[in-house]
Design goal:
With 334 residues, the protein is α+β, with helices and mostly antiparallel strands. A nine-stranded mixed beta sheet has the order 3-2-1-4-5-9-8-7-6, sandwiched between helices. 34% of the residues are buried. The protein contains 13 helices and nine strands. It is elongated, with a radius of gyration of 22 Å. The protein is 38% helix and 21% strand. α4 packs across α11.
Length: 334
């Protein structure tokens, strides 16, 4: 866990102190006549239009995430749909749980975000959120909550999908379970460790004739995930089924494995926001300020990842002490 002082540096008062410590020349480059007070900054963040801020930050990150050299590439790009809840949100559901924010990630850059209404669920937010992106050449990856016929029809109008299958699609799951997986050759094996566990994933992919019981599904996916806790040494094995719309020519088993790993790696982004940036410990609660701070964290993480940093904590320490490098991240002259 970060030290208490480190936590504060990622909050409103920390931003104000950083502005005070920044040179007048650096402040002038970003349009600040004088350092803002923490109270002034807090009032500003609490009154911002959260949707407009999310759209601006996401679009800016998406532009910088695109490599002009890759414009002619035909390889499908993964965009993960995932939600994150903050325990410090000011408005909670009737059951006491905080409303989640629904996120669209390209890699570990959040390119679109919306906050779910307190009395709603994440399912109705799927289509409006994805409509804000050009899905051509993209594969939406999502958990079983979004394995909905309507979602598939919406995505396929412009892109492709990989959707996990669980109990909400019983007939489809039954079909996937009874496929002759023993006869299918192993097509990908990955080993990873982190967050106190070791994990081995084995992936098989096959096409099904006459077809799968889900619109536009072309290939079936079987992932065996073997996870061992490094503290208890206990091992659990879980089978995950999924369906995907790309043909074998559009997405090979290797590429499908990469797209699935990319979706699961979104957990690392949530870990960074909770631990490195201490999001759940934030005391910011007024108006839209919690959401604005989450957007700023997403922006910082996305920028840091795009320039190649693997350790976000080390990167934040570096840019905190090197204002000129931080300005270069924003494409401003140092």
């Amino acid at each position: 866990m970060p030290a208490r002082g480190a936590r504060r540096r990622h909050h409103v008062a920390g931003i104000a102190r950083y502005a005070i410590d920044t040179s007048p020349e650096a402040r002038a480059r970003i349009g600040l006549r004088r350092p803002p007070r923490a109270t002034t900054l807090g009032r500003l963040l609490s009154r911002l239009d959260g949707d407009a801020l999310d759209d601006a930050a996401g679009a800016w990150l998406a532009r910088h995430a695109s490599d002009p050299a890759d414009e002619g590439a035909v390889e499908l790009v993964g965009v993960a749909v995932d939600g994150k809840s903050s325990t410090r949100q000011p408005h909670r559901r009737e059951d006491g749980r905080p409303p989640p924010r629904r996120l669209l990630h390209e890699g570990q850059a959040v390119v679109c975000q919306r906050q779910i209404a307190a009395k709603s669920t994440e399912i109705p937010a799927f289509a409006p959120l994805s409509e804000r992106l050009d899905l051509r050449g993209c594969v939406i990856t999502a958990d079983a909550m979004h394995t909905q016929i309507g979602h598939a029809e919406h995505v396929i109008a412009g892109g492709q999908y990989i959707l996990v299958v669980k109990g909400n699609q019983k007939k489809l799951r039954r079909q996937l379970r009874h496929l002759p997986w023993r006869e299918v050759l192993l097509q990908d094996r990955a080993r990873e460790q982190g967050h106190g566990r070791r994990e081995i994933r084995r992936l098989k992919v096959c096409t099904v004739q006459p077809g799968l019981l889900f619109p536009h599904a072309v290939q079936a996916i079987d992932v065996k995930r073997r996870r061992t806790s490094r503290t208890t040494n206990q091992t659990t094995v879980k089978t995950i089924f999924a369906v995907t719309s790309p043909t074998p020519e559009q997405a090979t088993p290797d590429r499908i494995a990469e797209l699935i790993r990319g979706h699961w790696q979104v957990e690392a982004l949530h870990h960074v926001r909770d631990v490195t940036f201490a999001e759940d410990a934030s005391r910011v609660r007024t108006g839209t300020a919690p959401r604005a701070m989450a957007t700023l964290r997403n922006l910082a993480i996305g920028l840091i990842r795009q320039v190649g940093w693997a350790n976000i904590a080390a990167a934040t320490d570096h840019y905190r002490s090197r204002t000129d490098h931080a300005l270069q991240l924003l494409d401003l002259e140092a």
